[in-house]
Amino acid sequence: MIKTYRKTTTIKAEQFDEAKWQSIYNASHNPEEWDFEARKLGIDHYHGYFIILTYEGDMRVHDGDWIATGINGENWPIADDIFRKTYAELPVIPEAVADWIELGKSKRVSLDTALLLTLYENKKTDGNELARWIMHGNLATVARAWLDGYRVEAQHDTRTD
User: How many whole angstroms from its chain centre is CA 132?
Assistant: First the structure.
């Protein structure tokens, strides 16, 4: 019987900009300077092309491709259309929601239990900001963040000097 699977790891990826990397390559005055920049993403320049050294061999990277970095630090190129069909950017959530997720996971509470407790607390305290944020159009974002991971939104400095 054929089963269906989903990817369970997250990756970091950067879209390849050939003009930018050609500029970096041209501005490098020695091989060590080029290597310092290029090795961050496993890029090399060979016979006028940019390549990535992968476990499967050298692979050419084209403008607009994505350079993925795996959990062991390995890099590989992914064509833009394949990347967009395969990966979704992690949701961005407020720090309070991230703290709530981490607390729930540390206590080994399921997502549904954590949501029920938060809603119950909201009714008792008459207006929990966290519950309001979750329940006003962000429930799917919270579920994705709980399951797949997240990024915390940047805090804005409201001080005036």
Answer: 26
- The whole-angstrom separation of Cα 157 and Cα 110 is 34
With a CB cutoff of 8 Å and minimum separation 6, the contacts of 77 are 16, 52, 59, 60, 61, 62, 65, 66, 67, 68
Q: Which residues contact 89 (CB under 8 A, 6 or more apart)?
A: none
The separation between CA 160 and the C-alpha centre of its own chain, rounded to angstroms, equals: 32
Query: pLDDT digit string (tens) for 70-102?
Result: 888 899 999 999 999 988 889 999 998 999 999
Label the pairing between strands 43-46 and 75-78: unpaired
Query: What's the pTM value of the predicted model, to 2 decimals?
Result: 0.71
* Helix spans in 5-79 (H): 18-27, 31-38
